[in-house]
Design goal:
It is a single chain. This protein is of the alpha+beta class. It folds into 2 domains: 102 residues, Phosphorylase Kinase, domain 1, CATH 3.30.200; 193 residues, Aminoglycoside phosphotransferase (APH), C-terminal lobe (Aminoglycoside 3'-phosphotransferase, Chain: A, domain 2, Alpha-Beta Complex), CATH 3.90.1200.10. The protein contains 10 helices and 11 strands. The strands form 3 sheets. It has a 5-stranded antiparallel sheet, sandwiched between helices. A 3-stranded antiparallel sheet has the order 6-9-10, covered by helices on one side. It is globular, with a radius of gyration of 20 Å.
């Protein structure tokens, strides 16, 4: 099986030695999964990125085979999909945590939410889906699987690395913007509306299926529910020259989210700004361009 050079490079850059090991054993993992789960006609999707994903057949059923470098995020994804159990999410059919293997329901027609043109419609659909997948247990606290899920606070602890990385400065991050985010984060995390969320909830991870709109690729993150709108607010990624349109859409989205979720505009804008800053930092860590996420953060911070 010929793997795209870009996929191989990404796996090696992100996962280092573990990535090289994964690429070396991937043909055997695919063969093992095919034998164990009765798969045939395994065909990689054309846009491989951080995981190997392929269309496959299990008897007459169309399925998705996913294989990734075993890591906490992949473990968290499996746990979240088990808990969602197909309600608002694609169904996890089989999994192997040790080897990083998932067998998933194939969503048809599989149209991404990003493909819809009406942004109000997209935002309302997104709210419907996020409310289906959010989970608490009967006592009103997060499900008792804490060791399986990502803690949102750990992600935001990454912002503490910015100044050491830039020798005490803030690099491309405007000082006032970073300080503002640092000042309101404690209040955001004091919110008692804590849930298990998708964690990477945006227009490319919400697909149309015969069962309605469903999410794929959940991170499985525990934290204040307000964070869920962060990835949604910065997607789909627009042209860097179309910021006026971006701001108009952002303001409209805030109004819809505030009305549908009964959240204050300030809460929505602060979470959007915080996520955009965090996304910019992740881009720097991955040697990618942080400009888009930073510009989003600046715009969110200026909306009233």
């Amino acid at each position: 099986m010929q793997l795209p050079t870009s996929f191989i490079t990404t796996i090696k850059n992100v996962y280092k030695k573990d990535g090289e090991k994964f690429l070396a054993v991937l043909p055997f993992l695919i063969q093992e999964a095919s034998q164990r789960w009765g798969l045939s006609d395994v065909q990689p999707v054309p846009n491989l990125s951080f995981n190997f994903v392929a269309f496959a057949k299990r008897g007459n059923e169309d399925v998705i085979l996913k294989a990734g470098v075993p890591n906490p995020e992949l473990t968290s994804e499996m746990a979240a999909l088990k808990l969602f159990n197909g309600n608002g999410a694609c169904q996890l059919l089989e999994s192997d945590e040790e080897h990083g293997l998932l067998l998933l329901e194939r969503l048809k027609p599989g149209q991404m939410l990003a493909e819809l043109e009406d942004d109000d419609e997209r935002t309302n659909i997104a709210v419907d889906v996020m409310q289906k997948i959010w989970r608490k247990d009967r006592n009103g606290v997060t499900p008792p699987l804490h060791n399986k899920f990502i803690q949102l606070s750990n992600w935001f602890n990454g912002l503490k690395k910015i100044r050491p990385h830039f020798n005490g400065g803030t690099g491309p991050f405007p000082k006032k913007l970073l300080e503002r985010v640092e000042s309101f984060l404690p209040e955001l995390f004091a919110d008692k509306d804590v849930k298990l969320m998708h964690g990477d909830f945006h227009h490319y991870n919400i697909l149309r299926s015969e069962r309605g709109w469903l999410v794929i690729d959940p991170k499985g993150v525990i934290g204040p529910a307000g964070y869920e709108i962060g990835p949604l607010m910065i997607n789909p990624r627009n042209s860097l020259s179309d910021w006026n349109n971006f701001q108009i859409k952002a303001e409209r989205r805030v109004s819809i989210l505030s009305e549908r979720l009964s959240w204050e505009r300030e809460k929505i804008l602060n979470w959007a700004t915080a996520h955009a800053v965090l996304s910019a930092w992740w881009s720097i860590e991955d040697n990618m361009d942080e400009a888009y996420a930073l510009q989003c953060a600046k715009i969110f911070s200026e909306i009233k």
